[in-house]
Specification:
Arc Repressor Mutant, subunit A, homodimer, globular, DNA-binding (chains A, B), about 160 residues, MarR/SlyA-like (chains A, B), 6 helices, mainly alpha, HTH_MarR-typ (chains A, B), DNA-binding
DNA sequence: GCCATATAATAAGGATTACTTATTAATATG
DNA sequence: CATATTAATAAGTAATCCTTATTATATGGC
């Protein structure tokens, strides 16, 4: 991939990185015998972190629609990595929980993700890397803000 | 999106940003009456930059498979933004060129992309932003290297 | 010259991510 | 108690990207 002006700006680079990281994750987890997509991995990590959690809340955490999550949970449930349990507080809701098998898989994925991360950071000053993460989080927060502003003015205008 | 340890590392953030930027691009280009997907946009920018170019070379530039590009070019050709011309040097090959309409669309997209970029960079020190870009390009180069190394050892081992 | 091999593009088909709209069931509110 | 809201999902769509196989053309070795 060439480093030229307008075709190598922030958006392009981020898009490239996202595709490359996804492909690397697929490749390395595949080699390790773990058939897991990036989306499924994201769900597992977040379920582990956020404990038994309602699908709505989990979708919000992931920044995806409830319906999109529904399909991901279907697949993960089929693989035996998560379970849907009734929410005692609300009979409509289901709590997504990590199974033992799911926890084991997350533990296996963790070092793979860390490996990709350290490959990516190779040769970059650790302080620079920390600043990079801070700036990226700030950029994400900025874009989320401008998106929600656009949504609110839209609903005000319409 | 919460800022917690293992669920907010480099890969997760990059993935988030990629999704958010794509959604913002879709939204803003849609508002401007330009029905263009991110993939199509990438192709247009690269065709403008790399002039009449063979599909194989263009796919390589974009880091996607020739077949994937074929579909994108189909759609762009349908919209009248690019044309396939025979390569005088090789009758199998086709040169993808930007039409006048395509050039006009790229010119319209450019400020939209710049707007997203400036929204993202809001409140971040310009020097930090420059360092961010340098570090991101380095990370991308690192990952591309580790990928090609993995491919070569794979073929050696097998 | 001629055959084997390699290359350029594409046809065909599949997986994943993610969306929207509408439905069902259950809960909350006025 | 009727209405509105919420949780999950069914159904259908679209984009991106992949793999494998096919067709046409080039090219290098004999």
């Amino acid at each position: 991939m060439p480093a030229s002006s307008e075709t190598d700006t922030f958006g392009f680079i981020v898009n490239d990185l996202s595709r490359i990281i996804r492909a690397e994750m697929d490749r390395r987890t595949g080699e390790a015998g773990l058939g897991l997509t990036t989306g499924e991995g994201r769900v597992l990590f977040n379920v582990r972190r956020a404990g038994p959690i309602r699908q709505t809340a989990l979708a919000e955490r992931l920044g995806i629609e409830a319906m999109t999550l529904s399909g991901l949970v279907d697949r993960l449930e089929g693989k035996g990595y998560v379970a849907r349990q009734p929410d005692p507080a609300d009979r409509r809701a289901k709590l997504v929980t990590l199974t033992d098998a799911g926890a084991a898989v997350v533990a296996q994925i963790e070092p793979i993700a860390a490996g990709i991360r350290s490959d990516a950071a190779q040769g970059i000053d650790p302080d620079d890397w920390q600043r990079l993460l801070v700036a990226l989080r700030a950029a994400r927060a900025n874009l989320l803000t401008s998106r929600s502003e656009a949504q609110s003015t839209e609903s005000t205008a319409a």
